[in-house]
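Please, structure for the following, as C-alpha cells.
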Amino acid sequence: MYEAKQTFKRSGFFKDYNEVKKYTFKDYDSCLIFCLEEQIPTFIYNIGEGITTKRKTFKNYYSLEEFKKVALKNPLFFLGVHDAKKIDIETYYFYLIARHINKLKKIYNHG
C-alpha cells in the first residue's frame, strides 16, 4: 500500500496552521502519477506491519521546474518542435504525465 501526504498552509483568525491530507493507493503507478501531478516530493510504501520505505518522486522523473529548463534546452526531443516558445510547457508536462510518462524520465549519461 502506497501513501502520499500533502501539506496545505491555511490561515485562521489568529494564526496560520498546516493542514495535512493523506492519500492511499494500491499500486505504484497510480501513486507515482498522483505525486507527479501534485508535485509531492516523497511518498511512503508500507511493506508490512511496521515496515515502510520512503520513495523519492523526482529521483528518476523531472519535476515541473526541471522539465521547463530541460525542454527549453532541447525542445525537439522533449516537445517535438524546434521553437519552445510556441508551446505551453506547463500544460504539456501534465499531458505527458497522463499519456507518455516515459518522456519525463531523467536520462543519465554514464561515461
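The CA atoms of residues 32 and 43 lie 8 Å apart. The mean pLDDT is 87.
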